[in-house]
Amino acid sequence: MSVETYTPQAFHRQAHDALGNPQIRANFRQAMDGLMGKRRDAFGDWDVETLRELGANIRLRALAKLPDLLEQLEAKCQANGIKVHWAEDGEQACEIIRGLCEARGAKRVIKGKSMVSEEMHLNAHLEAAGIEALESDLGEYLVQLNEQTPSHIIMPAIHLNTDEISDLMHAKTGTERTRDVDYLTAAARQQLRERFMAADVGISGVNFAVAETGTLCLVENEGNGRMTTTVPPVHIAVTGIEKVVEHLRDVAPLYALLTRSATGQHVTTYFNMISGPRKPEEHDGPEEVHLVLVDNGRSAIYQDDELLDTLRCIRCGACMNHCPVYTRVGGHTYGTTYPGPIGSILMPHLQGLEATKDLPSASSLCGACGEVCPVKIPIPDLLVRLRKEAVGEGRGNVAGAGAKRNRSEVLAWKGFQWLATHPGAWRASTGIAGKLRALTPAKLGPWTDYRTAPKPAATSLHALVKRHRRDAKQEGKS
Question: Which pLDDT does position 225 carry in this prediction?
Answer without folding.
Answer: 93
